[in-house]
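Q: Convert this sequence to structure tokens.
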Amino acid sequence: MITLIAWAVTTAALITVTHTVWVEHLARPKISAFFWFAPSRQPRVTAVATFATAFAIWHLLSIMLANPLLLPTPAATIQALASFPRMELAHNALHSILRVAVAFSLASAVGLTMGLAAGLFPWIHRAILPLNSALRYIPPTAFIGLTIVWFGVDEGSKIALIIIGVLFYIIQMTVDVARTFPRPLAEAAPNLGATDWETFRYIIWPYCVPAVLSVLRVNLGAAWTFVVAAEVVSAQTGLGHMMAISQRFLLTPQLFALLVLTGIIGFLSDALFGIAIRRTSTWA
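A:
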């Protein structure tokens, strides 16, 4: 049954892609397709077509290879996902989500504060950016062993690794956002009677919020990378721990099922950030 569904999705993908290409490029007026002022007529259809095409390619490649140890079929992956005990899967997924939430919140609070300060005050910029640039190029995975030595094998080491992995990037990217603020606006506000705090609260911060959310949106994906890396090395719970067990026993369908689940969680969190960005940039 699942195999028949996979073939149906493959056929539907080809039809959808053909329809999308026709609507977007052949049956529309010739407007530049490289800019946002040439919007898609059917953005949801295009997105569904992309997912369906990826699913179809995966299905065809798995059939061509005919080796589930190398690449399981989508049907086998779905069956593997359904075979996990629901409570166990939810328990491990929740542990990973909580680790990412705690560590990413701490890193975001520190990174945004330091990044905005360095972007708005030149002396802070000169003080912290050179060191931040040096630390940013050290691979965070090199700290896996050290975080275990420093914080043990409990939650502290996983949270520390995520913070190390994203903090320095958040600082640098937030600095870049703050430095794009139009200087004439900052100079005009005090002349109109605004205090420094009012200038920041009502002018600088609203201007930067959409871009700051984009910074967090990108780095949240990195946070998931590091939580899985930490859980693979030293954890008794979490999606990374389940992936390590699947790799150890060559349970490739189960591994792909966990990867798909992680991708779904990431897609949902990314979608939430996208909604937040649209809501905070309605004035633009």
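The domain at 84-280 is CATH 1.10.3720.10 (MetI-like fold).
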